[in-house]
Please model this.
Amino acid sequence: MGIDDQAWSDRVACMALAAGMDYWDQPDGPWGAEANAQYRLGGAALARYDVSARGWLRSAVDDEHPGAAFRMALWAFREDYQDVGEAWLARAADLGHGDALNLIEMHDHCEYACIRGPRLADFLMAAVDEDCQDPAFAPEVARLFART
Model:
């Protein structure tokens, strides 16, 4: 990811988090208030590229927080662990994360149609629409998932 892409991604993440636009921020969810707090701390750290993000998000995933699994995918993609990122994305989809489901489905369709490279990134970005569940991080996940 280039400097401009990273700066853009940082701005989007910070604006979305500041605006309180977070579908998975649900302290009363089945994962519980503690996992939700870990998810929020992990998301804030992820927006700052802070290494503590991994620990907070991983703890929330242990309690089956879908948003935390999705954000763990981003952590892995940022670290160039593509296979690990794909596994976290699949875990998020298994837990019901809509953005993860949409991205995996679009990726599979594109793979079947032999669409790769920049065109794959375009299709994956299109799968993340204005109604996505994680507007702070879904565009970056889509862009980095396209590297697979």
